[in-house]
Specification:
The protein is an alpha/beta fold and 373 residues long. It has two domains: 5-165 and 317-368, Medium-chain alcohol dehydrogenases, catalytic domain (Quinone Oxidoreductase, Chain A, domain 1); 167-313, Rossmann fold. The protein has eleven helices and 18 strands. Strands 3, 5, 6, 9, 10, 17 and 18 form a seven-stranded mixed beta sheet that branches. Strands 13-12-11-14-15-16 form a six-stranded parallel beta sheet, with helices on both faces. Helix 5 links the parallel strand 11 (186-190) and strand 12. The two termini are 22 Å apart. The relative contact order is 0.16.
């Protein structure tokens, strides 16, 4: 790296504008590496973090989704997570969290997403503590020992790898591993933000016979339709009555029996009760979208019993999900024009990017430290 200093977009106080500050780029310790950030995603979770909806330390450089290039490798770092040799200049992506690997959840349960002491870039790594550069909204990021780093597959440019952001590996975990989608199934996706889009894409790749996307606003549904994401699109705002939406969805399922799988990707508590009604008897329901606590919602547990519904949850993703996300990127990109999801912003426009994400004005805002085209 030519410069010894990196800018970073710092959250100092909840609800206050983010500020661009600088920090010296440290030399990597053994097992660590320095990456230059090429693109960093702005996620709905960042909006919630900015509002103070999650208990995180401040100050913090935001950004838990990023791709970049290796600038310096610490001693002992010779290959990526899969064993592919790693060199300076290589295009890489990295999993956003480092589980401890020793606790009950990591070892006994084997559920690394549930680790209570996992370190997460851009979320719980303080800016005022060494190594300072622990968030993706920066020129450079310090990737600590234990980070799962992946060399991007040949032919996968950074804009493809960042297009789904954390929603890509989150969908791999929830849709493929937790609830599963089998060939020929009818799948309802509630929500048409990045999580819903990613979930629908993986449902298609799994061989779903029909994917029904219930979401909005219309601009997001139009983009989904153009990309071939979803076979049927139901606009929440055009069909404002939940009972009408349920009837519409049931009419799209075999025999009107309901969907085999319903994926909650909306992050709206009320979506859950509505989604139960869209599932068939003996169907499967996954709550994937409630990443922040937006409050309680009335549900009728009788519906779960009577229908013999399987209701599951899925939290974030671990290294194995990120690995399979990276490995499936070329197939995803063959089928869907991922880069159409992106709207680029220069790093110094992080506040504008965050506001646009909060307003649902863009599908995926991406910060480009070198300057957006
Ligand atoms: Zn995220
Ligand atoms: Zn742990």
């Amino acid at each position: 790296m030519a410069a010894m200093v990196s800018r970073g977009v710092v959250l100092r106080a909840f609800g206050e504008p983010l500020v661009v500050e600088t920090a010296e780029v440290p030399a990597p310790q053994p097992g660590a590496l320095i990456a230059r950030v090429e693109m960093a995603g702005v996620c709905g979770t960042d909006v919630h973090l900015h509002h103070g909806n999650l208990p995180i330390p401040t100050p913090v450089i935001l950004g838990h989704e990023a791709v970049g290039r290796v600038v310096r490798l610490g001693d002992g770092v010779t290959s990526d997570f899969t064993g592919v040799p790693l060199h300076e200049g290589d295009a890489i992506a990295w999993a956003s969290s480092i589980p401890c690997g020793r606790c009950h959840w990591c070892v006994v349960e084997g559920e690394r997403t549930l680790c209570e002491t996992r370190r997460v870039y851009g979320i719980n790594q303080r800016f005022d503590e060494w190594p300072h550069l622990s968030g993706g909204w920066a020129d450079a990021v310090y990737l600590q020992p234990g980070t799962a780093v992946f060399k991007l597959p040949v032919g996968t440019p950074p804009e493809r790898a960042i297009a789904l952001g954390c929603a890509g590996p989150t969908a791999v975990h929830g849709v493929l591993d937790v609830i599963g989608v089998r060939a020929g199934e009818t799948v309802v996706v509630q929500g048409s933000g990045p999580v819903g889009i990613a979930a629908a894409m993986y449902a298609h790749l799994s061989g779903a016979a029909k994917v029904i996307v219930v979401g909005g606003p219309a601009s997001r549904l139009a983009l989904a339709r153009e990309l071939g994401v979803g076979d049927v699109h139901v606009d929440l705002f055009a069909v404002a009555d939940p009972a009408a939406r349920i009837a519409l969805v049931l009419g799209e399922t075999p025999g009107g029996r309901g969907a085999d799988v319903v994926l909650e990707c909306a992050g709206v508590p009320a979506a859950v009760a509505e989604g139960f009604e869209m599932a068939r008897r003996n169907g499967r329901y996954l709550v994937l979208g409630q990443y922040t606590d937006r409050g309680a919602t009335p549900i009728n547990p009788h519906v779960i019993t009577r229908k013999q519904l399987t209701v599951a949850g899925s939290w974030a993703f671990a290294e194995a999900h990120y690995l399979r996300y990276i490995q499936s990127l070329p197939r995803l990109a063959d089928r869907f024009d991922l880069t159409r999801l992106i709207t680029p912003y220069p790093l110094e426009d992080a506040n504008r990017a965050l506001a646009d994400v909060a307003a649902g004005a863009v599908m995926k805002a991406v910060l480009v430290p070198a300057g957006a085209a």
